[in-house]
Amino acid sequence: MKSLVDKYEETLTQAKIAVGYVGVDDNRVMVFLKGLDKLLEESAFLFLNSDKFSKRYLTGDLGRFVRAYYSYLKIIGIPYLIDLLEDLLERLENSACKDCIDKTRSLITGFNQLLDNLRYREEPP
Fold first, then answer.
1. Cα–Cα nearest to 12, from 98, 106, 79
2. Would you say 29 and 100 are in contact if contact means Cβ atoms under 8 Å apart?
């Protein structure tokens, strides 16, 4: 779970940088966007299989960390990434990179669906 949080923090930084490349180097933007597919897949796998967190891992101090990481992703990491992708999409609307626009829209939809699923699931016990 910690490694996923770390990936989100790194991705948030990369997203801010990617915005600056719109219209300058659309290939870099597309490379960034393609990298988000793996993050979305990892996130969905982890959260859709959250029942695999056994009670022995969720007790005591370790359990508090797992719940904190889960909450961070649900409340901050994923919503902030969606906001950055929406900003990126706004800038891309005037660019010639239609593939970037389509990919960004697809990712926004995917992360929104993930976030909706997380909001309707309980935190790990």
1. 79
2. yes
45 or 57: which leads in pLDDT: 45
pLDDT tens across 94-104, in order?
888 899 999 99
- Identity of the residue numbered 6: D
Q: How far apart are CA 85 and CA 56, in angstroms?
A: 37
Q: How far apart are CA 88 and CA 91, in angstroms?
A: 5
Q: Alpha-carbon distance 95 to 80, whole Å? A: 23
Q: What is the pLDDT confidence band of residue 1, given thresholds at 50, 70 and 90?
A: confident
Phi, psi of 27, deg, nearest 5: -65, -40
Q: What is the pTM of this model?
A: 0.86
